[in-house]
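Listing S7. Sequence submitted for prediction.
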Amino acid sequence: MIQSLYRLFIELTNRRWSSTMIQKFARSRVSKRFVPSFAKVYSINQEEMEKDLQEYASLHDFFIRKLKPGVRPITEQADVVVSPVDAVIEDIGLIEPSHEINVKGKMYSIAEMLGSREAAEQYQQGKYMVLYLSPSHYHRIHSPIAGKVLKQWTLGSRSYPVNRLGLKYGKDTLAKNYRTITEIGYENRRLAVVKVGAMFVNCIEPVHKGDELQKGQEIAYFSFGSTVVLLFEKDALNLPVKINLPKPIKVGEKLGTLN
């Protein structure tokens, strides 16, 4: 019953007209007056922000805020994989031989997430990591490793919420939401950075130029809270012995090491 009601609510509110209205409001001058209250409600650390609160022209401008240089130091060790986002690590696990992952008790198809079985084959029996960004987080996405962009593509059109309730009750949120996938190649291996759009606002804007990426380099931004799924090839990633989930993490902090 709860699942049915929750899905009904999502279907009623997750439409193009509602997305358009919310996007227009968030980008409007009127929305600027809500920036201080938003910052207060979500306890935004204003000391980290590139600009003062009154300098943001709209809620959207504030959502995609940049940070002061140096406030997110990047771990420099070559074999260290760093967090691409400020987020909460919601789940970590193995990619099953059937190309599925188990997140919050639900099975998600990697083939659906990436758009083809061929793409999913690269990550069979590898590891996955789900990083959730709430509206309170810094919304810019950085490269978790140094490497080269092998391919980037976009799938999906509508989006269900990707918070804990969305993952539990939503309809294949990670595999069917609007999403942009970037595959990064390194040392004859690859990893996928799957940027999953949030409810209402399907906006994932790429910002990097060219194919080469430095670790910690900004690659895109979300216009609202959302989720990043990292997919690693088999035996490619070593994780700490124990990780207590959910675990808050920031851009540049260590996720694990490459084999």
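Caption to Listing S7: primary sequence and predicted structure tokens for the chain studied. The longest helix spans residues 2-13. Residues 80-258 form one domain.
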